[in-house]
Amino acid sequence: MQLQSFMQRLKESEWIKGDAHQYALSGELQVEELNPAELQDFPEIIYIRSKRDYLVGRIDRDLLLYLIRSERTSMPLQILDAIRDGIIAVDADGRIYYANEAYTTVLGVPLRRVLGKYIQKIEPSALLVRALEERTVQTSSKQMVSSVNKYVSLQAFPIWNGASFLGAVSIFRDVTELHQLNQEVRQMAGVADEYSRRLQEYEVSVDLNLTSYDRNFQKVIHQAATVAHADIAVLLYGELGAGKEVVANYLHRCSPRREKPFLTVSCSAVPEDMLEDEIFGRGGEPGLLELAEGGTLFLDEVGDLPPHTQSRLQGTLRKKPDIRLIASASQRLDQLVNTKRFRQDLYFQIATITLHIPPLRERPDDIIPLANRFLSFYNEKHKKNLVLSPGVYKNLRAYHWPGNIRELKNHIERLVILGDDTQPLLVTVPAPDDYAAEQKTIFSGTLEQQLRAFETQAIQAAIDRCGGNRTQAMRELGISRRTFYRKCAALRISGEK
Predict the structure, then answer these.
(1) Where is average pLDDT lowest: 90-94, 255-259, 328-332, 440-444?
(2) Residue range 184-219, pLDDT digits in tens
(3) What does the mean pLDDT of the chain come to?
(4) I need a surface site. Which of 76, 137, 333, 365 has the fewest CB within 10 A?
């Protein structure tokens, strides 16, 4: 062992200080005579003195063994020290005999704390230990070093000299910046995805005329956008004509099922003897449940389902078909459950999430924008160029719109059809006072006669508001198809237009 080289390593390690030319351990043992085997029996801390018995320092026994071994190895340590990746090597027993400068730089661990130590004691779960024990190559793309809060990529592999096993080497690289960059990229990708999703939701809402200036309805739209991505059943509450089917369509088009069918069945408009076949199919003909596979089935006015159809639907849903079910009701289903008119188990299956669609009278700020939107649409449809007169807006906002958006839409279309392009379009709707007077009409006769007269007026008014469309009229009145026709026959109401 070259004394000069040894002394230089000692000085670099900062274990001793001074300019003595020759150092010895305890006793008269000379440095150049040191034998690693003899040092195994030395204490962990070895004091160093000069020939003149001056105490000049101390050194860790394991560090001294490392220095001796590193001096006698043929490994080009200078090259390894220049590598930016961290390198640590152990012998066949697991004792660390080499670590380069990058090791200290990356992990912040002084060499004197690891050199000569057993890797099994320092880090039992290290990849290097596994490579040493299994004598196979071990890799890890990313591992957190909690002591220094850094991420490193690791590779450990055994070292052989022919058939002789020498030990193992671990090479690691600091990938903290790369990890942080990757996190930033993921965050940016998440932001981009969120922006794209919200843009899509906005485009769908515009396409469906679902934009709103009313804060309460904006909350409903936001809830619908959130619920749309969850593949769960949704129940929509709202008055007839309030826009439940539009919201259902919005839920579908903003969902992962958007590319699949969106099918609708009106449980109140289809006759009872045909409704079950419509939903489940018959005679080899598929029903809407089968046709909607992968997509969405919308059951409008689900509260009007006959009891037997409710039972069959509940049994089908228990088998978890590949559809998303959206239902709507203008009356509270929980109340129908309490009166035994709706199955409780079916109610729980379709009401995972409930959304309440406010009527148009509770969204006065939306009336004018909707009217203008419908006016533009029907102008294009009927090749007209009508405009609203200046005084029409107050009149539109004052009316209660019992038929909600459907009534407003039909009213605007009727005006466009009958309107004259040569003059402004005057929108005439009942004023609040007129409506109140209408509601206070006194009917003479017996109670039965008064009820008959009131029903006649209410049904006829609904038919008139809906332009003679009886299906829309019965929806507005909230009665079944059978009840509607029975009352029309009894009251001698034709109303066909």
Answers:
(1) 440-444
(2) 666 666 655 555 656 565 666 666 667 788 888 888
(3) 76
(4) 76
Spelled out in words, what is the top-level CATH class assigned to the domain 74-174? alpha beta
Strand order in the sheet with 96-99: 96-99, 86-91, 164-174, 150-161, 138-145
Cross-strand bridge partners of residue 139 = 155
d(CA 146, CA 490): 84
Question: Which of the 8 DSSP states describes residue 7?
Answer: H
- Mean pLDDT: which of 2-11, 223-232, 433-442 is highest? 223-232
pTM of the entire structure?
0.52
Task: Find how far residue 142's CA is from the centre of its chain.
Answer: 26
Superfamily of domain 208-358: P-loop containing nucleotide triphosphate hydrolases (3.40.50.300)
Q: How far apart are CA 212 and CA 20, in angstroms?
A: 89
Answer whether 454's CB lies under 8 Å from 401's CB: no
Which value, to the nearest 10 degrees, does the dihedral of the CA atoms of residues 270, 273, 278, 280 take? 140
As given in the structure block, the two tokens for residue 78 are 């200078």
Rounded to whole angstroms, how far apart are CA atoms 85 and 173?
5
Our CA dihedral for 74, 75, 81, 86, rounded to 10 degrees, sits at -150
Q: Which CATH architecture has domain 441-491?
A: Orthogonal Bundle (1.10)
- How crowded is residue 396: how many other Cβ atoms within 10 Å of its Cβ? 19
Are residues 179 and 151 in contact, defined by beta-carbon separation less than 8 angstroms? yes
Q: Which residues are CB-neighbours of 424 under 8 A, at least 6 positions away?
A: 386, 387, 388, 389, 390
Distance CA 29, CA 34 (A): 7
User: Which residues face 154 on adjacent strands?
Assistant: 140, 172
Segments of the chain assigned to CATH 1.10.10.60: 441-491
> Residue range 279-294: average pLDDT?
90
Say which residue, 416 or 46, is predicted with more confidence. Answer: 416
Higher per-residue pLDDT: 240 or 5: 240
Instruction: Find out if CATH 1.10.3720.10 is the number for domain 362-433.
Output: no
Instruction: Provide the residue type at 272 as one letter.
Output: E
DSSP letter string, 377-430: HHHHHTT----B-TTHHHHHHHS--TTHHHHHHHHHHHHHHH--TTS-B-----
